[in-house]
Design the sequence.
């Protein structure tokens, strides 16, 4: 509905991936189909096609190819890829998810998440707490990327996905040629999946002065332990404080500092990734840059569709806070709402536009 | 620093080593080599080629020879290996030569750490084009002597055991990975082997002189005799029915790639669990350039439960995702373990025959670093 209006209005300010001519572009169409392996040699061409098609979702390859339009992955001629990270709030398990996500069944009945009804559709909701959980994780990720991996801040861009997550793009020529395994190593580092407890413990086998020289993960782990126990966490001090349960204490600190990213997104080099400034079909909001991660307000900033009134018939909707105001909760009602709210509810499959 | 003659004797595959020979008055033409076929470096070179390819290591007796003799013996060895035309032999040779260099660096570390650091740093920069910086940084109780860029570290460590070499078990600060000299020496191996392999593969010998052709033929024969042909899957599951992750690993193995530890563990547990006989599993690995039958047998038998009594299960999909081994495609549906792929895919040609593919009882896990 209002996607057309958005794309016409935004045509001149759409974000375009650098080296567009070497990227594969893909569209999700409104009939649910996919158009992949599209190739555009200029931003103008891409925008013209977006305006012609009015896609439900727009994606571009993180990889650069010699022949991005070739439908066979092996024949595209891989030349390198941006390093990207996807932080999905669902994986962070904030308490709000149990409260606002729900199942809706064919008979129109609504069930809480815990009920797990058979054959019903799960509806993911979004709230400011979800955003805060994601933001916290993004800040953890940025700290590791910059401090440990030495990536320059100006090579990193953070985006709100338009739904319930954040995407972090790294454009560093030095890292472009990393293959799948090298990326898996980066993910493993961030998530602390295969850490060796003796390795971490070994760094605490030092004096209080020694603790001051720590860096990387050993440093972060020590900082968590310092706050938890209120003393410099030398191994000797921890042994006394934890009554010999040092490994348990370290494991628990590891859970606190580990960064939760979706491993597949970072490792999958043939993936197409949502294009910034395009609309997210799950909400009608756009994938929006968060230039200042601490201060950005995605549920307000990412509203892209207008606020003209649209009449909708709503089956069920929990409280929704977007565009700076709170809407709902609603149950079996018909009313006029700003177009961006209507678009959100329709995208979630809980409302229909009434002509 | 520039490499001295003594060092070039251990770096015979780089250009400066050739230049040293010329300075010392040795011509490098094939005719000249054949004319000198009775010189001791020739016999040493032929033996060097055989030792490297067949035994997986180069005899330490070379160390007593003068640098130019050592270089010449390498040239002879490389010509012989190249003349076999066997890519597997070239890979084995390159790996054994890389290990030899590593041993020489370790000797240097034991005698003088400072000198060794300078040498290592020169090898990294001049041969691999990587900057291994000397540092003196104490982090907690550990003292680090060198650091290497993250990207370079990742490319050199990819085939090593992740529980020790994975970056998650390293100190990474500011895009640099901190190490002790011993680690930097060990890390060289794959990069150096790669250089030597490329160097040897690129040698052009259109018509090898008779003595070289003879030595090559003899070596070839020995290689073919001991290296079994690709194992035919001796189980009721055909290769097309394997999950994408296993097919991808087999492809890499056949391409002569040195697989990461985690990939080997996955392949071994998978094959053992679909009922492939241990000998056939070992034969699969024999295609790997760094194959060592004794070690592989021990590990595969361990996984198969023939030693120690417990049989190991195939790592689950989420674990494989984390290790970068998952190659999930549409055919995987929502399986949680590669072994389930066989259960959910009906047997193609034979119809319902899924005998021998039952994943078996719940078994204790083993971490892949034991492989």
Sequence:
């Amino acid at each position: 509905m209002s996607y057309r209006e958005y794309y016409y209005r935004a045509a001149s300010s759409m974000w375009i991936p650098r080296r567009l001519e070497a990227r594969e572009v893909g569209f999700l169409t409104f009939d649910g189909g996919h158009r992949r392996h599209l190739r555009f040699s200029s931003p103008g061409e891409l925008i013209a096609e977006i305006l012609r098609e009015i896609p439900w979702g727009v994606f571009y390859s993180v990889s650069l190819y010699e022949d991005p339009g070739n439908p066979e992955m092996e024949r595209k001629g891989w030349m390198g890829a941006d390093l990207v990270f996807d932080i999905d709030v669902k994986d962070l398990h904030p308490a709000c998810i149990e409260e606002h996500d729900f199942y809706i069944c064919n008979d129109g009945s609504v069930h809480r998440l815990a009920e797990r009804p058979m054959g019903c559709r799960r509806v993911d909701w979004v709230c400011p707490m979800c955003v805060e959980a994601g933001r916290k994780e993004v800040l953890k990720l940025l700290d590791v990327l910059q401090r440990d991996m030495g990536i320059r801040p100006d090579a990193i861009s953070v985006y709100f996905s338009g739904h319930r997550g954040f995407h972090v793009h790294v454009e560093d020529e030095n890292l472009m040629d990393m293959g799948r395994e090298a990326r898996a190593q980066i993910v493993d580092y961030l998530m602390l999946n295969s850490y060796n407890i003796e390795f971490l413990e070994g760094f605490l086998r030092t004096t209080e002065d020694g603790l001051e020289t720590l860096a990387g993960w050993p440093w972060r782990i020590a900082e968590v332990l310092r706050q938890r126990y209120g003393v410099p966490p030398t191994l000797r001090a921890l042994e006394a404080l934890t009554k010999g349960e040092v490994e348990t204490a370290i494991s628990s600190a590891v859970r606190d500092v580990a960064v939760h990213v979706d491993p597949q997104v970072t490792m999958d080099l043939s993936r197409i990734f949502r294009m910034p400034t395009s609309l997210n079909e799950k909400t009608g909001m756009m994938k929006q840059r968060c230039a200042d991660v601490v201060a950005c307000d995605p549920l307000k900033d990412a509203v892209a569709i207008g606020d003209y009134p649209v009449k909708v018939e709503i089956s069920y909707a929990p409280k929704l806070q977007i565009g700076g105001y709170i809407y709902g909760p609603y149950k079996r009602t018909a009313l006029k709402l700003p177009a961006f709210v209507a678009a959100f509810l329709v995208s979630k499959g809980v409302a229909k536009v009434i002509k | 620093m520039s490499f001295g003659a003594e060092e070039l004797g251990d770096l015979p595959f780089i250009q400066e080593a050739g230049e040293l020979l010329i300075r010392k008055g040795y011509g490098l033409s094939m005719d000249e080599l054949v004319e000198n076929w009775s010189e001791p470096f020739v016999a040493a070179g032929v033996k060097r080629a055989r030792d490297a390819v067949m035994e997986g290591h180069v005899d330490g007796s070379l160390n007593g020879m003068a640098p130019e003799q050592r270089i010449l013996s390498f040239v002879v060895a490389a010509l012989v290996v190249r003349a076999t035309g066997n890519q597997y032999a070239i890979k084995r040779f390159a790996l054994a030569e890389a290990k030899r260099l590593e041993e020489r660096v370790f000797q240097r570390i034991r005698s003088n750490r400072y000198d060794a650091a300078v040498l290592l740093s020169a090898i990294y920069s001049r041969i691999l084009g990587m900057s291994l910086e000397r540092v003196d940084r104490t982090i907690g109780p550990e003292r680090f002597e060198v650091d290497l860029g993250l990207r370079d570290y990742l490319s050199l460590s990819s085939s090593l055991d992740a529980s020790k070499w994975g970056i998650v078990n390293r100190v990474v600060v500011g895009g640099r990975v901190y190490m002790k000299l011993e680690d930097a020496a060990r890390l060289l191996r794959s990069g150096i082997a790669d250089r030597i392999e490329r160097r040897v593969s690129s040698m052009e010998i259109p018509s090898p002189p008779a003595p070289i052709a003879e030595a090559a033929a003899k070596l070839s024969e020995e290689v073919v005799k001991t290296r079994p042909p690709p194992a035919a899957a001796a189980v009721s599951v055909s290769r097309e029915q394997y999950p994408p992750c296993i097919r991808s690993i087999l492809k890499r193995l056949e391409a002569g790639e040195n697989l990461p530890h985690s990939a080997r563990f996955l392949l071994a547990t998978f094959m053992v669990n679909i009922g492939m006989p241990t000998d056939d599993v070992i034969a699969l690995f024999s295609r790997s350039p760094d194959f060592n039958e004794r070690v592989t047998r021990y590990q595969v038998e361990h996984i198969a439960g023939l030693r120690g009594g417990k049989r190991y299960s195939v790592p689950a999909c989420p674990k494989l995702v984390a290790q970068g081994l998952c190659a999930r495609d549409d055919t995987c549906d929502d399986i949680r373990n590669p072994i389930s792929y066989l259960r959910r895919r009906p047997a193609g040609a034979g119809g319902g025959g899924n005998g021998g593919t039952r994943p078996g009882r719940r078994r204790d896990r083993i971490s892949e670093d034991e492989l």
User: Anything to note?
Assistant: The two ends of chain A are 12 Å apart (CA to CA). The first strand of chain A starts at residue 25 and ends at 28. Chain A touches chain B through 41 residues (CB under 8 Å).
